[in-house]
Write a sequence for this structure.
């Protein structure tokens, strides 16, 4: 009986011109978004690779130079694009694509695409994630709001009950029929998305992205199931199809449009972050005056000098077997690194607390759960940005340490010391390894759990309401 009801429901939906038009438009938008994401990924990935090669060659071919000048010359570290970013660009347009690595400073990321966006683009970018999180749920609502309510109004629901069709079989049949119609819309887009992923992935990246892709696919299926279950439950309970539609549209507006903005503002108010100017001033103050306010840079330098004099049993820096300036600069770098770790660690912890509020708010809106999970699996969430930032910072510290130690061991007694190209070659090329799926899941466990809870709750609500719905 369930199969019969499902077949009948699916045929009615397919024959409905409104479904064909809405499905065609949605499929066109989804495929267009994926195509644009694929093209953008290809362009940006090739640009990053070309820029990475150029900046590496500039570092290697800078000629004879003082090592400290070379440290200030610096290099760029480009954040690699993950293949699944073609579906969900996440925070990438807002956090920058490259870090400038130089002496004395942990710089903010540069080249943020959002800064160059037009006013229209800032209202919302058409991406695969946007279509899947906003438009597909709306299509599900439009297909499902009348599932029980219209049949009750037309009197066909009583006829079905009189034929011996149980409420449970009717609910399952309608759910399967609607799911079949949606599959006709999603399957072509899925094939196009996988094909695009295969074309963008290189050097085994497709195999590495497959587990993420499968979990992302399962997450979106659960998200669609939430709307399907809630729509069936409301249709079974509502007094009319009009009431069901208004109720479901209200939920859709709250879920997709109001809740994300409201929760973002709430998180920022509960856990505010310092302004860029204040953040930079706090770092500069701690480096110059000490993190406790009682250990200025001059005092630290004098303490280092006395320590070296005692260590080598001499009475003047000129008698030291190493260059004091090189050692002093490295000590300054190490103290600066402690300051950076303190302030950036506090900043990232604040962002993480804001993200936790988003995750907890998924109890009220499933869109918040799928947004967080989608960005995480696509490799475009803030935790993975911070992961890359930390890797780039460690590379910066490696460069500065090598430059300062070369000064310490080779600049002694030389009025002008110039290092040769062999020193630049000692610095390995920067290579970033993105975290694995387990790391991502651990960071988004709460979103995954709450999305699962929403899915189960929606299924139970649909079953409960369908069993207790009024026939007349």
């Amino acid at each position: 009986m369930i199969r019969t009801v499902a077949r009948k429901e699916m045929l009615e939906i397919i024959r409905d011109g409104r479904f064909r038009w809405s499905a065609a438009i949605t499929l066109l938008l989804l495929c267009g978004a994926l195509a644009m994401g694929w093209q953008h990924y290809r362009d940006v990935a090739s640009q990053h690779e070309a820029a990475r090669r150029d900046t590496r060659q500039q570092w290697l071919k800078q000629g004879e130079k003082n090592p400290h000048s070379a440290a200030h010359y610096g290099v760029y570290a480009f954040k690699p694009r993950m293949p699944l970013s073609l579906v969900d660009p996440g925070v990438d347009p807002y956090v920058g694509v490259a870090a400038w690595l130089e002496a004395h400073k942990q710089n903010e990321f540069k080249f943020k695409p959002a800064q160059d966006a037009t006013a229209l683009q800032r209202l919302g970018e058409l991406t695969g994630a946007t279509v899947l999180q906003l438009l597909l749920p709306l299509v599900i609502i439009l297909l499902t709001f009348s599932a029980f309510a219209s049949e009750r109004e037309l009197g066909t629901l009583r006829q079905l009950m009189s034929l011996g069709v149980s409420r449970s079989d009717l609910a399952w049949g309608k759910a399967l029929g609607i799911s079949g119609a949606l599959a006709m819309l999603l399957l072509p887009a899925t094939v196009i998305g996988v094909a695009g992923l295969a074309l963008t992935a290189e050097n085994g990246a497709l195999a590495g992205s497959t587990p993420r892709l499968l979990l992302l696919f399962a997450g979106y299926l659960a998200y669609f199931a939430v709307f399907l279950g809630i729509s069936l439950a409301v249709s079974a309970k509502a007094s009319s199809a009009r009431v069901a539609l208004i109720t479901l549209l209200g939920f859709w507006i709250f879920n997709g449009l109001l809740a994300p903005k409201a929760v973002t503002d709430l998180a920022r108010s509960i856990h505010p972050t310092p302004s860029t100017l204040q953040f930079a001033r706090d770092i500069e103050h701690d480096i110059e005056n000490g993190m406790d306010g009682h250990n200025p840079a001059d005092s630290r330098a004098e303490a280092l000098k006395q320590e070296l004099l005692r260590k080598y049993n001499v009475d003047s820096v000129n008698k030291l077997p190493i260059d004091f300036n090189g050692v002093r600069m490295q000590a300054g770098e190490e103290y600066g690194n402690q300051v950076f770790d303190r302030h950036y660690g506090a900043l990232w912890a604040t962002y993480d607390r804001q993200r936790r509020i988003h995750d907890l708010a998924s109890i009220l809106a499933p869109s918040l759960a799928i947004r967080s999970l989608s960005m995480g699996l696509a490799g475009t969430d803030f935790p993975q940005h911070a992961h890359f930032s930390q890797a780039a910072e460690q590379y910066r510290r490696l460069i500065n340490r090598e430059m300062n130690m070369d000064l310490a061991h080779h600049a002694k007694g030389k009025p002008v010391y110039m290092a040769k190209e062999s020193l630049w070659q000692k610095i390995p090329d920067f290579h970033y390894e993105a975290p694995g799926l387990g790391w991502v899941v651990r960071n988004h466990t709460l979103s995954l759990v709450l999305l699962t809870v929403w899915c189960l709750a929606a299924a139970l609500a649909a079953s409960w309401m369908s069993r207790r719905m009024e026939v007349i």
